[in-house]
Amino acid sequence: MILIGSRAFFLRCPDALSRYPKDFDWVCTQQEYEHWMKINSAQVKPTKVYPENGKMIVEGLTNCEFEIIQPDTSCQMLKGLVEDNEESIKTSLGWVPTLDLLFTIKASHRYRKFEYSDHVFWKTFRDYHVMKRLGAKVRPEYRDFLAQREKETYTYQHPKLNQDKEGFFKSDGLTYIWDHDTVHLSVAQQEKPAYTYYMKDGAQVQCDKEKFFACTREIQLSGVVEEAAVLAIERSLVPHVGVWTPERAWKFALGKVMSSITSGWFREFAFENGPEILKLYPKGYWEKFQADTKSGLVKPFVETQ
User: pTM here?
Assistant: First the structure.
């Protein structure tokens, strides 16, 4: 059996985590899972056992997840990578992969879709950046494994940016009250919205990677801060007045920016620089937006025919 997740990270680096892991995550064969259940059921006292997406989930005094090894899957690849590496550690809980391999597993689902009550995203985010500060990396020999595991993880669609603005905003299913571009004007951290510095020539919603990375770091970071602020206004604070504080709405929106609302190089930049971006919370952005709707800077949304 191969122990992964926070428990394995804790065994590798016991002083790195700010919490004590409660759950267990393993990759194993069906036979190993059945043997484990036979030996440990009395101690775990399972109240619920069920299959889910190639896993067996055991809920009880201790919650456990078992990814069952199947042919031609990342789990099968992981087994080979662990068995062939002299840096793997054999423990009473199973084999513990290298820190770099644990980091690669973490990297494979760092963009997992962010849900309303999903604390898993932020736990993954924190662990990823702790590992990164410790020097963990994706080794060249792990890249095929990473690609396969990402393929198995990300099954949802992202917004299509290669279309005009009207098509883009119609496709997201949101009822707009305020004009999107003028909301950006309101939350701009510089003299104009950050995205205007790196818009793709002739496009309405696409950004240019080369232009973005030619900008100052201040503008790059502001671009992420502003996207989160606009999302917070349009999807939380305006349609659901008083449900969340502006800071809670912004942090939730930032999680979306770093996972499922965006993709590609912009999402990667947001996630990789997330700890710094979190410190740049734009205090007063909601109050300024409200004032800007009254002054006329933020204009009502008008749907074109």
Answer: 0.89
